[in-house]
Structure formats: structure tokens, C-alpha cells
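Homework help board

Subject: predicted structure for assignment chain

Our instructor gave us this sequence and asked us to write out the predicted structure in C-alpha cell form, then describe one feature. I got the C-alpha cells but I'm not sure how to describe them. Can anyone check?
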Amino acid sequence: MVAQEATIDAAHFRHVLGHYPTGVCIITARSAEGELFGMAVGSFTSISLNPALVGFFPDNGSTSWPRIRACGSFCVNVIGSHQLSLCRQFAARGGNKFEGVTHRLSPAGHPILDDCVMWIDCAFHDEVATGDHRLVLGRVAALEVERADQPLLFLRGTYGAFQPLS
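My C-alpha cell output:
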């Protein structure tokens, strides 16, 4: 017997899942011609240790993701709780997302944003259609912690940081 697919109200789904925190990352890439691309994502995760894979979920309507994908590789920048303005800059549609943003290049040649918590250089591994988003898998090529700081988190429609219990 095949189970019937339940119809879930999108607003209710967002409300309930909003009670689970997500980290905020900025995915960056640099084309062979030197053009810089970036986008903010709020759904990033470790996928596999062997091979080392990470994943994130860009919206199907993203105009930044196709440009980043065309580069063949990218850098995940986990930003700190002190970098909310950077998150907003990269989440905005259009414009020069790198205006006023200081960075250096990763081993693969992609922007590592100054003062990020950590970065992960990835080769594009796979992409799977998943409803109104896509699951993008990156094969980790290099990674490093930049500073022992609190990452920027998103929870219940607002931004914040983790506060340890002890």
C-alpha cells in the first residue's frame, strides 16, 4: 500500500522548522575571468567523512547559484555572529555583493571573507532537485578555522549566536 502524500501548509511548516537553528554561510566563487560571485545560505551541513562532502540548499530561483556552479568549485565561508551586515549584503538580490568586502583567495582561488569563522574549499560534486530548492554537494579540497568565534545563527526569524550551557 502506498501512503498518501500529506499536504502541509507552507506557513505552518516554516513556523515549526523555524524552531531549529541553522548556521549562516556565504558561498563564494571566482570565475576564470576573475569575476566574483557570492550568495548567503541558511542551510549548510556536513554530509560525509569519506569522501569528505558538504552540502547546502540554494533556492531554485537563485540567480547567484548558476553563476557559482559554472565556476566548477566554490568556497563556503561560515560567518561569525559579528558579521550580520555581511550576511544581509550577500543575501540581497543584485548589486555588487563584494563592494567594500575584504577577502583573500583560497587555495582554489575563491574568496575567503575576512574575519569568517572558517572556510571550506570545495569542488562541485553533485546537484539534486529537491522541491523548491536544490541540494548541492561539494567535495572538500581544503578547509581551515580562521578564528575561534561564535558563528552567526538563524532561529525563529532572527539572527543570533550560540550560548553554551556551561
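Reply (TA_rk): Your C-alpha cells look well-formed. For the description, you could write something like this. The longest strand covers residues 118-130. That's the kind of observation they're looking for.
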